Known about the structure:
This protein has about 180 residues and is of the alpha+beta class. It is about 30% helix and about 30% strand. It has five helices and ten strands. It has an eight-stranded mixed sheet with strand order 1-2-3-4-5-7-8-10. A two-stranded antiparallel ribbon has the order 6-9. It is globular. The chain starts with a strand and ends with a strand.
Amino acid sequence: MKIEWRKYSIKGKEIEALVTISERLDRWRLRKLYFKWKKLNDAIKKISTRGINLPEAISENAFCIFFPECIRVVKLKQGKCSYDVLNRKTGARIQIKASSIDEDLTSFGPRSEWDELFFLDFSEGDGSFKVYKIEKESIYKHKVNRNQTFEQQQAEARRPRFSITENIIKPIGLKPVKICKL
């Protein structure tokens, strides 16, 4: 993988972004990185109550390998970027959330914006992952506690947290759009 500045047109607006450009051996490289992370995570869990999160550099780049119309956005030249990936064909800004355990706890920034949201389930521990497309309404209208929805917490500049697996995927029987293996 290499990282370069590139220009894109998103919904009629020109942006310049530092993006990850895929190369021929990237799937192999990510697989190697995934298993190095897994080995470290397993060792840490032997001496601690919790492990370390799956790095976004692995999950976001893995998504782009299996969805080649997408490119990982590292940062924008101007302005802030709350999305992770850009669909070069449609211009959709994509947020990627991932978990390596069965019961995730996913958090969102108070100003998170995206056009599409995908959840990557790496819980098998073998380098495979299920990709779920989560509809915006399922997130924004979700009650994160007894009194507030995701949308209400964001309006208060708070960081909504909840399990996408337990609160969205399982209750509605959502099926993955793709199953991938590094």
